From TrEMBL:
Catalyzes the synthesis of activated sulfate. This is Adenylyl-sulfate kinase. It comes from Genlisea aurea. It comes from the Eukaryota. Keywords: Amino-acid biosynthesis, ATP-binding, Cysteine biosynthesis, Kinase, Nucleotide-binding, Transferase. HAMAP family: Adenylyl_sulf_kinase. GO terms for cellular component: cytoplasm. It catalyses: adenosine 5'-phosphosulfate + ATP = 3'-phosphoadenylyl sulfate + ADP + H(+). One of its GO terms (biological process) is hydrogen sulfide biosynthetic process.
Amino acid sequence: SAGKKTVEVSTVGKSSNIAWHQCSVGKRDREKLLNQKGCVVWITGLSGSGKSTLACSLSHALHARGKLSYILDGDNCRHGLNRDLSFKAEDRAENIRRIGEVAKLFCDAGFISIASLISPFRNDRDACRNLLPEGDFIEVYLDTPLEICEARDPKGLYKLARAGKIKGFTGIDDPYEKPLNAEIVLEAVDGNCDSPNAMAERIVSYLEWKGYLKA
């Protein structure tokens, strides 16, 4: 009928006849409200490298500065969002994809989203990077040597992998592809690692330098 607005629909993946609904309140409006800029800090590294501990230290450091963040921890997300996924290769890739999409939503909400998971393959991490505007994906490589991770073995997984009770374990019988161009690399020097708080402060300094801690 005359004057009737037509909604343009499309197909995305397996979803057909869907339309993107734009709201008058956008990312910049939310960022001004929070006095910060949304971004994704993606912490990658071997099991036992200290990713979850670093994520919590970073969230605490940001909170102390009055900045809003949210942690998307690999294990935590498997308690709910990704509880239907196994540790098979295709499910691990889907685990990362879903967390990347949720991190993107938090970023759009104006949060500093902290993703903490092994994410061993560059292609999967790069796919998450490509979801975001340039600069909004900050890859943090926690470069903790395998021998230190295995000595820590907080969940006893390395011991099980060495005994052959876990197959396809990253760093033992499955590869880990180190980032080639991570924005931040946190590495052990002479076998010694900085404290989680010290490493968190390095990330906060980077966020401040790049202007994410103000609107």
